[in-house]
Task: structure prediction
Amino acid sequence: MASIFTKIINGDIPCYKIAETDKFFAFLDINPNAKGHTLCIPKAEVDKLFDLDDDTYLELMAFSKLVAAAIKKAVPCKRVGMTVIGLEVPHAHVHLIPLNSMEDARFLSKEKLSDAEFQDLAAAIRANL
Ligand code: 5GP
Result:
């Protein structure tokens, strides 16, 4: 069965899209730690990041770096952090999280954003790519 992220890539589930290439996709996390929290994923449905083939792994890092630079320009923060967990969705993904404090990295307190806020964030990040 397709993962929830494959359904997002295919447009079967809506998302706030940030970027797409032939191999990768980036979109806002629906339950963000902080405004601008973005997920970068390979289109290939592989569960664990370190099971990706080397080329895809390195290309995903390069893709994530470009997206992180755009987040940094669009969202006020001290830095953009990168985290890999994968306990909830079995489709490899990199969390890019605008950090202002350690709290933003802890996946405990979450931002509640309106549809308009998600739309505006996605547009602002896309404009900096
Ligand atoms: P992890 O698998 O790394 O523990 O967490 C998966 C992340 O995916 C979570 O931060 C969660 O909010 C996000 N997520 C789960 N389902 C969806 C979804 O349908 N849309 C979006 N945009 N994010 C999702």
